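JOB MANIFEST
job_type = single_chain_structure
chain_count = 1
residues = 250
[input]
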Amino acid sequence: MAARFEELDWRQTPMGEISLRRRRDPVVNREVYEVKLGDEYLMSSLFTVAEIELARLALAELSREDLDVVVGGLGLGYTAHAVLRDRRVRSMIVVEALADVIGWHQRGLVPGGEALVADPRCRLVAGDFFALTAAAGPDPAAPGRRFDAVLVDIDHSPGHVLHPSHAAFYRPDGLRHLASHLRPGGVFALWSDDPPEAGFTEALGQVFPQVRTEVVTFRNPLIGSDSANTVYLAQTQARPPGEPGQPPPG
């Protein structure tokens, strides 16, 4: 019989102690994978509905083909896998600040990790998503490259960040940097563990002409009722009629 609890990896990082754990949950009677940073839970395979919806809702806003997508934050890979399930996606960059998290996928320590690494459309980049976005863009190999969609699942919420340096991203100036890396009609989508925040929605409205929120509910077996996350969706201005089509990648 497998152990009811196992710590698969533990590392000291600049952001604190990070660990990957696997346990047998008696409530749902299956294995659950969890990521912790210090005493905070970052992700659990028990709750993945909103992470998957982050990708589905964002890509549903786009009607074109040959999509180039950025995912900020790898975690257990559920958002990245959901992106690749869309046949229109031709490339995806996943930017992860902690190289150890990328290593979990490369070593097959998380379900589906090796398949994600093997997909030719996927490239895993070890880097600070927020610093890259504030500078030449999320693809270090191609400064100035623009994308059809940028999906972010890193902090708990715009008001509950994992590191103080992330806070500037959620203000209008930080969002303008992000918007500059999107193509016309491109989509920015953000996962949040908190209910919709009026202040952040207002900040998005100062930068993007189209903004909305989706509250994603899911069954939480640990409390015997529903829980909810928020997905923010914002879209840049579409290219005016008569202008040339979208540029090639790179």
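[summary]
Helices lie at 49-60, 78-84, 99-106, 113-118, 129-134, 172-179, 198-205.
The radius of gyration is 18 Å.
exit_status = 0
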